[in-house]
Design a protein that fits this description.
InterPro entries: AOX, AOX_sf. By secondary structure, the protein is an all-alpha fold. It has a domain at 113-292: Up-down Bundle (Ferritin). It has helices spanning 2-29, 46-59, 113-133, 137-166, 173-191, 199-222, 224-251, 261-266, 275-292. The chain starts with a helix and ends with a helix.
Length: 293
């Protein structure tokens, strides 16, 4: 028995050594290799992808870069007109037209203690945001969306786990909250096309998101009602921020540049849409999230 175990251990070590050598060689050549600890070509940065493409071009090799996080090429998707679909972060069936007729002035008046706690917590968070970003609404929107996409994911995750524990249905709330998180993430993907965050703003995202995620997680465990109230008031503030954004665009303080292609496809906007049209549909989305929460 001891000899068998020793022999098996030696075999495993030998195979492990060979595997490590193979992985090391593949990594050195920039190849894809499905082993933990080695990045696939799809997870390389843009600069690294360009280097790989240049190397492949020089060598006459395959120029294709797999556009998937896992290194697996997804199925080919096309638009209704037959042209290739170029976005990997969302699919044609996830696109929609925002409801611009939604009531933007609706306000939930805080009556209970939890309502007032949520309301004044959000109000206190607005002051440092105003001081930091001033009227740089593009970067302000970017920062806002990195935080706004957290609650839906946290709430959906906790309800998902609760459904598993209790062997019961969720009433559709898991899907609703996860869709909300995805929609907020698409807001971020859009504003990343029109804003150029500075290095300290990117660093701030790490800090703010880390603190907010854990704080919201604990708040949701303690009181889901309080957590949703916080999100509702956050969305009210988002509506106000995007309204100010529109005022700056109308005054010409911020250039009304053409809408990013990703926004045109996601919200099914006309081809000649501008940044103002994008802010309009994003504000409508925030109003919808306000009503849900």
């Amino acid at each position: 028995m001891m000899m068998t175990r020793g022999t098996s251990r030696v075999a495993r070590l030998t195979m492990g050594g060979r595997l490590f050598s193979a992985v090391k060689g593949a990594a050195a050549e920039g190849e894809k290799f499905p082993v933990m600890g080695v990045r696939w070509r799809s997870s390389l940065t843009l600069g690294e992808k360009e280097q790989v493409n240049n190397k492949n071009s020089e060598d006459g090799g395959n120029k294709e870069v797999v556009a998937s996080y896992w290194g697996i090429k997804g199925e080919e998707v096309k638009k209704e007109d037959g042209t290739p679909w170029k976005w990997n972060c969302f699919r044609p069936w996830e696109t929609y037209q925002a409801d611009l007729t939604i009531d933007l002035k609706k306000h939930h008046v805080p009556t209970t203690f939890l309502d007032k706690l949520a309301y004044w917590t959000v109000k206190s968070l607005r002051f440092p945001t105003d001081v930091f970003f001033q009227r740089r609404y593009g970067c302000r929107a970017m920062m806002l969306e990195t935080v706004a996409a957290v609650p839906g994911m946290v709430g959906g995750m906790l309800l998902h786990c609760k459904s598993l524990r209790r062997f019961e249905h969720s009433g559709g709330w898991i899907k609703t909250l996860l869709d909300e998180a995805e929609n907020e993430r698409m807001h971020l993907m859009t504003f990343m096309e029109v804003s150029r965050p500075r290095w300290y703003e990117r660093a701030l995202v790490f800090t703010v998101q880390g603190v907010f995620f854990n704080a919201y997680f604990l708040a949701y465990l303690a009181s889901p009602k309080l957590a949703h109230r916080v999100v509702g008031y956050l969305e009210e503030e988002a509506i106000h921020s995007y309204t100010e954004f529109l005022k700056e665009l109308d005054k010409g303080t911020i250039e009304n540049v053409p809408a990013p292609a990703i926004a045109i496809d996601y919200w099914r906007l006309p081809a000649d849409s501008t940044l103002r049209d994008v802010v309009m549909v994003v504000r409508a989305d925030e109003a919808h999230h306000r009503d849900v929460n």
